Amino acid sequence: MRKNTWGFVGVAVLLGAALAAGAAEYPEKPVNLVVGFAAGGETDIVVRALNDKISANLGGQTVVLNKPGSGGLLAAQTIANSPPDGYNLLVLSLSHVLRQAADEKTPFNVLADFEPICRIVTQPIVLAVKGDSRFRTIEELIEHARANPNTLNFGSPGVGSLGHFSGELFKSAAGIQFKHVPFQGSAPGVTALLGGHIDFLVTARPAITGKVASGDLRILASFTDKRLPEMAEVPTFAEKGYPAVVMSGWFAFVAPAKTPPAVIQKMDRAVAKTLADPAVIEALGKLGFNAAHLGPPELKAFIAGELKRASEIARKENIVIQ
Amino acid sequence: MKRGDGLVGFLWVALGGYVVFSGFRLGFGSFASPGPGFIAVWAGSLLILFAAGLLVQGRRRRQPAPPAPFWAEPGAGRRVLLTLAGPVGFTLLLKFLGFFLCALLMLVYLFRAIHPHRWRLALLLAGSSALVCFVVFQYFLQIQFPPGLLDLHRLKGWLP
Amino acid sequence: MEVIANLAQGFGVAVQPTNLLFCFVGVFVGTLIGVLPGIGPLGAIALLLPTTFYIPPESALIMLAGIYYGAMYGGSTTSVLVNIPGEAASVVTCIDGHQMAKQGRAGAALGIAAFGSFIGGTITVFLLALLAPPLARMALTFGPPEYFSLMVLGLCILVYLANGPISKALVMAALGIVLGIVGTDTISGRSRFTFGFFELDDGIGIIPVVMGLFGVSEVLLNVEKKMERSIAAVKLKGLLPTRQDWKESLGPIFRGTFLGFFLGILPGGGAILSSFASYAMEKKLSRKPESFGRGAIAGVAGPETANNAATGGAFIPLLTIGIPTNAVMALMLGALVIHGLQPGPLIMKEQPALFWGTIASMYLGNGMLLLLNLPFIGLWVQILKVRYTLLFPFILLFCLIGVFGVNYSLLDTWLMLGFGVFGYILRKLDYEMAPLVLAMILGPLFENALRQSLIIFNGNPLVFFTRPISGAFLAGSLLLLLSNLLPWMRRRKKYLTDDD
User: Fold this and answer.
1) Average per-residue pLDDT in chain A?
2) Beta strand A179-182 with A31-35: parallel, antiparallel or unpaired?
3) Which of C184, C191, C331 has the CB atom closest to A40's CB atom?
4) Does pLDDT of A165 surpass 70?
5) Residues of C in contact with B16 (CB under 8 A)
6) In chain C, pLDDT over 90 holds for what percent of residues?
7) With contacts defined as CB-CB under 8 Å, which chain B residues touch C185?
């Protein structure tokens, strides 16, 4: 009995030590942060800007790996099929969710195949017109579109992009009609807007910040849920009477499904600490992003909500990628 | 005129036909609103047209001599296939062996297969170049090759 | 006068020792990555971007710009020596450059490329200083209809590239357009000809195609013969261009500069378009067009100058209206933004040191590039003396690294090998590869511009003719086709009846 007790205690101590060691040991080798875009893309730049600090806060090395291909799809597919050991994490973004909403053959499921870790940043989406446009306010634009259906040209950075979905969301909420002109990325869209070849553009804000500052472009409304301090004079669609017209770009870290909770939590703490650093917040701000941490359970609910909304828009507006 | 010229011409026509067919299936649209298959239909038709021109041209020209053989030199085809086996093997094995071993094996093989250089030269040259390439491309320029047997991250602990 | 004062201020910034150092580091790294496979200017700049956070913005821009035009120059080296275009813009250099190398004149080809780049770069700097603001505004007037017509013109110019049978060049061009269709349709979002490979959603990469069609197929052609010798069949001739070479190159260099500069301003394919438009123009103007494709130095001087001038032109939209015309420029924009600078019309007034300093540094950088590369030419041509049985394994290895390094994708490597075999068979049958590559690049640009135009103008095709710039391009295309096809038809008729 006594012997047994001691034996039991011994085993328990050993087990406890092993468990503690196991938890303390992650990561025992470098953690890959897999970005679905080429080095130098905006996702890549954000993750690289955070990488060193995350390494320090995690107490283990993290490495940014680029696996570009079909708009981030390839990387997501790879991570979905990686071992759930916490050494291969994906930078998931709204575009993955939109893709799944628009393409029923997407080779992964953002809800079932991944274990959410935390959201990193958000990025406001805005509707912009040329500086000397006849539209001074968003109401004037809506008014004009209502009176002349299908005459305005709406530019977006591509089919199924954030800008495309947001624009369609606006269109159906306001009950108006306009033509969609997809470009390949935001820069050609901005050029076309500056040249007056399209009437308005919906895109993430960083692409146009400079042109807004110089007065060449004007932001009529933003798709954020409330006014942002750095563009306090810009109204949101929500306050103009379209509460459903809310959308922001975001990036988040996710792990393959069935990754142990201890690993998820440790990573989440490291990222949360990084995102609380004022220097990091400032650096992200310069890149046009807002640090916006969201823990694992909240992120799960958030992604589910985004997917539901995106699927509804895709169905209603017939946005299909095949 | 070489042997194979006519065959390739027919191949173009067949490919063009496939592209036109797929183009219509994707959706031709109309001139005022072209669909996803619009350009495919046109490009495929052009391919057929130009290839047909090629075939007609080949027919109409009087041929004083039979077409030249595809390979002029004896053993040429064999050497080409042997050479091709090098990079094909590299690509097949890259995932399993990693960059360094693949580069080493391919270089040694190619130094021996086409023109048998002495083993010592082949091994020395292949070994040193594979190492230099490994350091320059994988370590210094950070090209992300599959880790394979020699995991860079495990090595990284020893490197500065 | 103001221009001179501005440039003087710029040179004041550029000759500061730290900036000279950054400029040197930039062109040096650029030359290296241009020659080495696997990493283009985009990758190199992305790797170096974090280091620019800690240096002043003008130093950062000077260094990054140096990498960009250094790489443009370095890329031509491999085109000449081993027929591997480092990127699409040097495809044209392969045609005559590699032929020159085979004739033992690699030194002259590399030399004229260096001098051409220098002269082109120098003139570009002054054009940039004089014309930047008005040109930036002009570039904005280009909407989808203008791009459509420009691409039509580009496709018509393709015909001039043919050095062999024109009927085969036409087949290659049509095939190029077909290959360009592969991938997701940017207007409707449908996958086309991807056969279930998600990797192909973005289209077939241009790097695997050019490396396969030019690099791998060249190796396969060479190993056919029991080649104990080196690439250059004859003794290497002088390292520098001769007086005769200069005479033949000066015209192409000056024409290439202006062509490159103006096409470089336009977003999307400007640099590529400029290099082959220059080739086509020189061939048309030449008194011995038959020498093109057989080692004509004008066919190296013109395009090489044009693509360097185009890199200068590409800075105009970036610095004046804050619009990047390609991915490299987008990264430079990123570098400026991180420093809290927003390039735009105001930057010339608010940050004159940055704007003019960068421009002046490009001039100095071009000089450094020349000094750096002239001594290297002697070294590079030594490669041609290496026995081919020892050289070709390295060429294949560099092609593999180069293709894998772009996307880390094994499918790309397979594609390169496939295109290598394909190119080998076709080149044996006298097909040319350049029209295929260029049609493949222009095809998607052409299609997008066409369909965007038709959406915007409610399906009215008349806009292409009624808008003045667009109409002029289309008229030019028609003239070009007529002037080229009529003599060809006549010749062919004659050929069929009494020749043969």
Assistant:
1) 85
2) unpaired
3) C331
4) yes
5) 174, 178
6) 9
7) 26, 36
| Average of per-residue pLDDT across B49-69 | 74
Distance from CA of B147 to the nearest CA of A (A): 12
Nearest chain C Cα to B51, which residue? C171
C392 in B contact zone (CB under 8 Å): yes
Distance CA A63, CA B83 (A): 37
> For C88-125, how does the pLDDT look when each residue is reduced to its tens digit (9 = 90+)?
778 888 888 888 888 888 888 888 988 888 888 888 88
In order of A189, A194, C134, C147, C316, the CA distances from C140 in angstroms are 12, 7, 10, 11, 12
Beta strand A114-130 with A179-182: parallel, antiparallel or unpaired?
Answer: unpaired
3-class state of residue A149 by DSSP: coil
> Which pLDDT band, with edges at 50, 70 and 90, does B135 fall under?
confident
Q: What residues in B contact C399, CB-CB < 8 Å?
A: 87
Q: Which chain B residues are closer than 8 Å to A179 by Cβ?
A: none
d(CA C467, CA C464): 6
Q: What are the distances in angstroms from CA C150 to CA C68, C144, C407, C464, C477?
A: 25, 10, 30, 11, 9
Cis peptide leading into A27, omega within 30 of 0?
A: yes
**Cβ <8 Å between A29 and B156:** no
For the segment C364-377, what is each residue's pLDDT rounded down to a tens digit?
888 888 888 788 77
- CA atoms within a 13 Å half-sphere pointing along the CA-CB vector of A186: 21
* Angstrom distance (rounded) from CA C386 to CA C367: 30
Residue in C201, C448, C456 closest to A70 by CB: C201
- Of A30-44, B11-25, C332-346, the poorest mean pLDDT is in C332-346
**Using alpha carbons only, how large is chain C's radius of gyration in Å?**
22
B103 in contact with chain C, both atoms CB, cutoff 8 A: yes
pLDDT at position A21 is 44
Instruction: Spell out which residues of chain C touch residue A217, defining contact as CB-CB under 8 Å.
Output: none
Residues A29, B153: C-beta atoms closer than 8 Å: yes
Distance CA C298, CA C291 (A): 10
Identify the residue among A47, A74, A289 best suited for mutation to test binding to C, counting C beta carbons within 10 A and taking the highest.
A74
pTM listed for this prediction: 0.80
Per DSSP, B29 falls in state B
Query: C381 versus A299: which is more confidently predicted?
Result: A299
Contacts of A39 by beta carbon, 8 Å cutoff, 6+ apart: A66, C42, C43, C46, C47
Partner-chain contact C455 A40, CB within 8 Å: no
- Structural tokens at position A261: 């909770």
Contact between B141 and C43 using a beta-carbon 8 Å cutoff: yes
Report yes or no: C272 and C89 within 8 Å, Cβ to Cβ: yes
Name which of C152-156, C176-180, C254-258 the model is least confident about. C152-156
**Cβ of C338 and A188 within 8 Å?**
no
